[in-house]
Amino acid sequence: MSSNDIKYRRIPRISHLPQKHDDYEPLELGFNGASFSGAVFNLSTTIVGAGIMALPSTVKQLGLIPGIIMILMGAALTETSIDMILRFGRASKTATYSGVVADSFGGFWRTLLQICIVINNLGMLIVYMIIIGDVLSGTWSDGVRHSGVMEEWFDQHWWTTRCPLLLFTTVFVFAPLISFKHVDSLRYTSALAVGLAIVFVAITAGVAVVKLTEGTIGMPRLMPEVVDQTSFWKLFTTVPIIVTAYICHHNVHPIENELKDHTHMKSIVRTSLTLCSSVYIATSFFGVLLFGDTTLDDVLANFDGDLGVPYSSLLDDVVRVSYGVHLMLVFPIVFFSLRLNLDELLFPFATPIAYDNRRFFLMTSALMGFIFLGANFVPNIWDAFQFTGATAAIAVGFIFPAAIALRDMHGIATKNDRRASWVLILLAVSSSTAAICSDIYSIFTSDTGIKS
């Protein structure tokens, strides 16, 4: 074993997370640990982000029955992988995901995991801000102008364009929320974010039921429609979407670290996944039921016209605004782990960032500035993040937890752990390869179509 690996095996034992009881000054007076409900809301908010809008299209592509089965399977595999990193974290006495990886494989793989988390979270936050900009100021799609809610309400002004609206959101919404040093401080905004996701489900379900009783829509396709080789391989591109929809591993340790009772973490994970998978299934079922084969890749775009029910315009606005606010509230919980992992990556020997105000401010400002510029000046980045979803997200959610269990440095892995690990790795590698190949094929065929 190299001296470099020995050095990195020691580093993860020094947590970069603010501890409930440690040798530093308390970050918040009166904070005595996070509650069960607060932890459930924070973990659920980490899970339910922009991925919820891609699931109806995913289920449309897979068919209703395989689609729902895949959502349930995604929840089960996510619970298994989280349980692995938590158990091995306790065995190695480390308080971070990267620390567990370092304990099993050394410094290089710890760094690689942190790079994957940074890429995944940074990409997610830029996409979140792009969607918020689309909701507020509008966007162009296939040569068609889709107006934003601010433009519809107040007509066109300089302050209803994308850049001023995102600047206002950054200064008055994001800046206060990302300044918290305890993840538990976001429990109320996380609860509201989950509530707004349920509002979206309720409206979609209500409109679908009304149209179903009127006989204006039919039942969706139950099984996938495979007409050629391309459509067959395209089915595999849905796996990274489902995996990405459940990615929350980067926030598991920060949430567990602040709990009053760490033994509740397994129940918190199970409760959060049950809540989120219920929301995902309801969104997918009623979304596909309502829009059928016209379900778009981002189902939010379907709420841009006449829904065929009374008060359609009002319902469209409520859906778009509630989802935009939902993403604003999801943003800080994802940003928390982004800042934490980037700080560990750049300053592995430093004191926890929560206790260094200067480093905390500079890191927060630099990240927020980069995300703001990305959302304003590089809006067409969906292809790039399809690749990161098929690589970085799958690595964080499936490959690293499975590899930790197979390595089994502490001799605690069971036969079920090993079986589950091989399933995770095989599913991750096969689906990721198929998704990347399908994306490359789609890009080249679209380019050919444009040239011809």
What does this structure look like?
There is one protein chain. By secondary structure, the protein is mainly alpha-helical. It is 71% helix and 2% strand. The chain has helices at 3-10, 36-47, 51-62, 64-92, 97-105, 107-137, 149-154, 162-177, 187-214, 229-234, 238-245, 249-257, 265-291, 312-346, 357-377, 382-407, 415-451, and strands at residues 138-141, 144-147. Strands 1-2 form a two-stranded antiparallel sheet. Helix 5 (97-105) packs antiparallel against helix 6, helix 6 packs across helix 15 and helix 16 packs antiparallel against helix 17 (415-451).
Question: Topology, please?
Answer:
Elements: H1 3-10, H2 36-47, H3 51-62, H4 64-92, H5 97-105, H6 107-137, E1 138-141, E2 144-147, H7 149-154, H8 162-177, H9 187-214, H10 229-234, H11 238-245, H12 249-257, H13 265-291, H14 312-346, H15 357-377, H16 382-407, H17 415-451
Antiparallel strand pairs: 1-2
Helix pairs in contact: 1-5, 2-9, 2-12, 2-13, 3-4, 3-11, 3-13, 4-5, 4-13, 4-16, 4-17, 5-6, 5-16, 6-8, 6-14, 6-15, 6-16, 8-14, 9-13, 9-14, 11-16, 16-17
